[in-house]
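Question (not urgent): is this output format expected?
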Amino acid sequence: MSRLEATFAALKAEGRSAFVTFITAGDPDHASSLEILKGLPDAGADIIELGMPFTDPAADGPAIDLAAHRALHAGANMKQTLSMVRDFRAGNAGTPIVLMGYFNPVYAYGIDRFVTDAADAGVDGLIIVDLPPEEDEELRLPANKAGIDVIRLATPTSDDARLTTILDGASGFVYYVAVAGVTGGKSATTEDIKAAVDRIKAQTDLPVAVGFGIRTPEQAGSVASVADAAVVGSAIVQTIASGLDESGKATAGMVKDVLDFTRHLAEGVRTAKQEKGCC
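Got this back:
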């Protein structure tokens, strides 16, 4: 059983959904980013999405776009991102890590080399937002062979026919993008999210994680009450940005503030289903 499968199975047995956090690798610098990454599980993260910095993150809003540029300015690259995963794994063997980003950095690194190095580092899954199902075999097949899930994205515009294509070959979980647009935008209603999750689950046994537009513990809890996981990215990344000084350097309390905020969000997820009397 993979780390992702084990995590979702354990949480299902507890009667709750997963809390998935996102940060950009190397934001605002390697040391601070690694400290946040290592602290996320104790702050309540069940699964961690680690962004691979890229110069043109077209699906991301201003917060994550700026985070990617801060990381790149500080010297982040794919080698450093994978090094962060290895350093994390030295102290944490259980929390799944999913690399999220765009195909260009993977292609530039070399697909075979990337898959080998990612598996060796302890990566559990990949979300490549600009690689459609029809074109992902060159990455998905070697990744799956190495034990890495390739997680597919569904959106509000994915009709049933498109869902069939999205789910064919998907593994790990399905990431449902709750709103049309970029990360950090408006939020969808709980009713709309539930309807979408139910429609996806009618076609797959994979867990469904929901992201985009979740900023508060209350919103995270609402999503967690109808989905298998709630994903928070931009709000955490904005907390990192708020902890920088005028020169863009991390202040003394930045890491603690980020982890405290993450812990606050996690509480919303952890109590959601219990409050609704599901367990």
